[in-house]
Amino acid sequence: MEQPTELKKLAYISVLIAFGIVLNLFEPSFFSVIPGVRIGLANIVSVLALLLFGEGACILTALLRSTIGSLIKGALNPIPLGTSVIGATSAAIVMALIYKLFKRHFSVIGISIIGGIINNFAQFLVVILITRNKAFFYYLPVLLFLGGVSGWIIGILSQLLYNKLKKVNISNET
Predict the structure, then answer these.
(1) Which residues of 76-112 are buried (b: 16+ CB within 10 A; e: fewer)?
(2) DSSP state, 106?
(3) CB 43: neighbour CB atoms within 10 A?
């Protein structure tokens, strides 16, 4: 018996969220010399949700996986919780807007690079608003550059995974 399309979509999005939480929990800090810098492998699921199910799924996936991941980690302090949730959600919103309005002009990698930069910029704003420490402004160029590099890596990985998932027909048409 064929399952309703919305139920399948919900199941796939739930798996993406769970996968994002697992990636978030187990991703090590690759650049331990630079405080707070990670590749952000969990962002792969936001890009995949965008490509497979559209803008709303992208934003929902980012919001839920970052919130639940932070709660599981016990990161209830406003800085780790705020940077995770606001960074991921802001990036997802911007990526969704670019995808909706300009997808013919941007590759998956380009959209992901912008998402990585927005993620780090939003996280920077959270830290500045909470700490009111203007010294962090010197750190902003480094964060934006590394956000672009992370976005590039996430974009490549997302494109590779998306190409594999297309072969098993997981998408809006499911």
Answers:
(1) eeeebbbbbbbbbbbbbbbbbebbeeeeeebebbbbb
(2) -
(3) 33
CATH 1.10.1760.20 fits 5-167, yes or no: yes
Residue tagged 């932070």 (tokens): 70
Find all residues with CB under 8 Å of 156, minimum gap 6, and list them: 109
pTM attached to this predicted model: 0.88
Output DSSP code: residue 139. G
Is the CA virtual torsion 163, 106, 151, 78 positive or negative? Answer: negative
- 69 exposed, middle or buried (CB, 10 Å; 0-12, 13-18, 19+)? buried
| pLDDT, tens digit only, all 174 positions of the chain | 455 588 888 999 999 999 999 998 887 665 555 666 678 899 999 999 999 999 999 999 999 999 999 898 887 788 888 889 999 999 999 999 999 999 899 999 999 999 999 999 999 999 999 988 888 888 899 999 999 999 999 999 999 999 998 887 765 554
Radius of gyration of the chain (CA): 16
- Sorted by where each begins, the domain ranges of the chain are 5-167
Residue 54's SS3 state is: coil
